[in-house]
Amino acid sequence: MIAEDLISTCAELERLELISPTGEATAQEYAQLLAIYLCQSDLCNAKFLWKRIPTSLKNSHDELSLIWKVGQCMWKRDYPAAYSALQVSWSDNVRHIMLALQDELRTRAVDLIANAYSSITVSDLSAMAGINDREAERLSNARGWIIDAETEMVHPVRPPPSSHVTTSSEGQLNKLTDYVSFLEN
Where in the cell is it found (predicted)? Predict the structure, then answer.
């Protein structure tokens, strides 16, 4: 539900920036849009937005720089630094988005661990998920992951493969036709 809210808010903020008489949005609108791009993991749009935000707004609105610091950490895939950068007292303007971003980052990290690791230390799991060791153990138990208490290693259980919806040959041909038609026009 929050994803749908973010999508509609993002579209509205982009529209407001475009119809603005000066071609610029307010600092609060830029902060929300930058946070939404990060929450959607749209790092390219976040980077382009950061480049087009006027320097005067960047210098006068500290929260913009703090949000972008999170974006830089995400760009580098430095999850522990991103969680650390998220530990800020955010304004009411972006608080709900930044909390959603923190949850989204944690979900992505845990899914990545489940799919990419056969074993990981509890401390590495907690650093990648932005939680303490006790919470990492609880998370592991909740997901049915095996914890070796002696070596402090967690053995993630890979989730079952998702079932892919197969498209008929006719559907694939129609899609290919649409692509070619688009490219020719």
Answer: Cytoplasm; Nucleus
